[in-house]
Amino acid sequence: MSDLSERTSCDATIEMLKKAAGEDQSTAFSRTEQMKACTIGESGICCKNCAMGPCRLTPPKKEGEPEKRGICGATAEVVAARNFVRMIAGGAAAHSDHGRAVAETMIMASKGETADYKIKDRMRLLEIAADIGVEVGDRPIEEIGLEVGEKCLAMFGNQTGEIEFAQRAPEPRQELWRKLGVFPRGIDREIVEVLHRTHIGVDQEMENIMIQGTRCALGDGWGGSMLATELQDVLFGSPKAIKSKINLGVLEEDQVNIIVHGHEPLLSEMILLAVQNPKLIEKAKEKGASGINISGICCTANEILSRHGIPIAGNVLQQEMAILTGAVEAMVVDVQCIYQAIGQLSQCYHTKVITTSPKGKMPLAEHLEFHEESALETAEKIVEMAIDNFSNRGKVDIPKDTEEFIGGYTHEYINYMLGGRFRASYRPLNDGIIDGRIRGVVGVVGCNNPRVPHDLIHQRVTEELVANGCLVVMTGCAAQSVAKTGLMSPESAKDKCPKGLYEICEAVGIPPVLHAGSCVDNSRILMSCTAMVKEGGLGKDISDLPVAGAAPEWMSEKAISIGHYFVTSGVYTVFGVKWPTLGSQKFTDFLFKEYENIYGAMWDFESDPEKMVGKILTHIDKKREALGILGKRERVLFDMAMRRELEIE
Ligand code: SF4
Ligand code: MSK
Fold first, then answer.
1. From the CA of 72, how far away is ligand 1's center (Å)?
2. Which whole number is the average pLDDT over 119-128?
3. pTM
4. Ligand 2 in contact with 337 (CB < 6 A)?
5. Which CATH number fits domain 76-236: 3.40.50.12780, 3.20.20.70, 3.40.1280.10, 1.20.1270.30?
6. What's 409-627's CATH class?
7. 409-627 matches 76-236 in CATH topology
8. Which residues pair with 242 in a beta bridge?
């Protein structure tokens, strides 16, 4: 493989990549070098929606040459739009099906059909009930929980009307969605309609295709993802700022190591309970281990971090690295972002990969199906399997690297931190933005992608945003990349921020980069933007705020869905790595330029991290100027020297 320091900024990952090379194992990093991306496919102009194709609509090579059309006559912009909205539908389906599982569990818990799940955060439930029109009165909590659960489940199947959670958005945004005909009706309906409209011979106008793409994405952000986040808070407790640590060094050499990986906390919460069972701890000791150690990968990690402070072993590109340590007895997976490669890799080490969802099986893994009625029992069986596997360990190589950080910043918790318990309010944040101490707020989210240096792009973008006075809110694997830098510790504010941002961080006791949770928790960022608008002084709609979104290392369809609901909710959003519509200039211009006239926000693409920050700051300053709060300010260019000795202005 090429120089490993150019592939990742994570030393633990480099150590494991060297081990993989020495033991002749392939990883996503090495396979990336062998698999060249198809340039026509990656630019969005290959259509395989029917068996007359695939049709590859490459642009004309010479001026005057006619544009290529598909066999059905489809133009490049229509093919690019169809492919793009199918990505949105894939992402929305993944997030929303996760939400459906949580709603179903909530109903079961409220009916007493499962002893393992209970309503944990009553206050949160009452707030949600009020928001979606469920009467509270003096009804028993389970009755309220049941009605809230049923109403949330109905949001999937509604054929008409409006998804209630979307009615939380600022009024002008809702009015715009109604005027444009993009207000989401039912989560499932919008996904199905994307698939229908993009079938051969249906919707042949890019603008109209995007109406449905937008309705589908909004059904994710303000529907499926939002209800997943909200009901998880009710069932497992709302996150609060909590200290933890990250990287492969969280694995323990003398303990049974269990990694939970995937997305839904329904499973990982039960594994957490199971590892506390004294009988199982005793059994682990009988097998020669000193205890049982649990850690997470990907968004499952973010879920149990935010609520319990459980350490994170790594992000999506580290799932193979964890197995390569030889120290993982079981990697327990459910859905999304689980590489099929870990089944194969586990055959060469002792790790048991255990699939648990009927929706996600894998060759060379053991399948132990997880059902809500017997959740804890299954979790205990899984823990026992891991304990039994401890004696099968071979050589163990655990990298030493770990970094401490603080996670658990929800929209509600930020509100509380800013204003205090009895006067929770976004006022200090809005005032900080108005008086220029905070330049703007940026949500940096999304995955890792081995096509770009792992972690490094996230870290560069975030460091420079902070150095330029922006408060950064992060989710997903992006948050895990930056947790490794120390920027998620309050102490970092002194060395990394300009004076104004530092003063606010210090007064409130927050780091300049806030870990806000998992991919579905991007809905928390929508609620934070809404709260900023409602607090006043920064315009009337989300599109007036000096805020932006970015996904510098994205790879999944979910990221496209997230980006699209950010943009159409009014947040300028820029993606890195590659952009999946570049084969059609017309469609790309529609998203990158025309969207600003329609939604007050647009998509953008920039693979260079420094230029990405430049675009974000330009956008934020444009919004500040429109609000009449633009102070003169030079951009801090974040070079290597600065990285070494950034001082307070
Ligand atoms: Fe080709 Fe049209 Fe079929 Fe797509 S739908 S594969 S463009 S013929
Ligand atoms: S896990 S969707 S790689 S963020 Fe949510 Fe990470 Fe992206 Fe999966």
1. 6
2. 96
3. 0.96
4. yes
5. 1.20.1270.30
6. alpha beta
7. no
8. 407
Give the residues across from 603 on adjacent strands. Answer: 573
Domain coordinates in residue numbering, the chain: 4-56, 76-236, 248-392, 409-627
Cβ of residue 53 lying under 6 Å from some atom of ligand 1:
yes
Task: List pLDDT tens digits, range 621-635.
Answer: 999 999 999 876 666
pLDDT of 638 strictly over 70: no
Our mutation pick for probing the ligand 1 site, out of 46, 48, 55, 209, counting the most ligand atoms within 8 A of Cβ, is 55
Whether 446 lines ligand 2, by a CB cut-off of 6 Å, is: yes
Cα-based distances in Å from 42 to 30, 56, 399, 569, 580? 20, 11, 35, 26, 6
Pairing state between β 292-297 and 352-355: unpaired
Q: How many CA atoms lie within 13 A of 638 on its CB side?
A: 23
Q: What's the confidence (pLDDT) of residue 648? A: 35
Q: Tell me the per-residue pLDDT of 191-220, one tens digit each, with 9 for 90 and over.
A: 999 999 999 999 999 999 999 999 999 999
Q: Is the CB of 71 under 6 A from ligand 1?
A: yes
**Contact partners, residue 238, CB within 8 Å, separation at least 6:** 121, 124, 410, 412, 413
pLDDT (0 to 100) of residue 646 = 45
Query: How remote is the CA of residue 399 from the centroid of ligand 2, in Å?
Result: 23
Q: Is 510 in the pocket of ligand 1 (CB under 6 A)?
A: no
Return the best residue to mutate from 320, 454, 458, 519 for the ligand 2 pocket (most ligand atoms within 8 A of CB): 519
562 within ligand 2 shell (Cβ under 6 A): no
Instruction: Return the structure tokens found at 272.
Output: 């957490």
> Is the preceding omega at residue 54 within 30 degrees of 0, hence cis?
yes
User: For 57-70, how does the pLDDT look when each residue is reduced to its tens digit (9 = 90+)?
Assistant: 999 889 889 999 99
Of 45, 49, 78, the residue with max ligand 1 atoms within 8 A of its CB, to mutate for a pocket test, comes to 49
Average pLDDT, the chain: 95
Only one residue has tokens 């806000």, namely: 516
Indicate the fold that domain 248-392 takes in CATH: Rossmann fold (3.40.50)
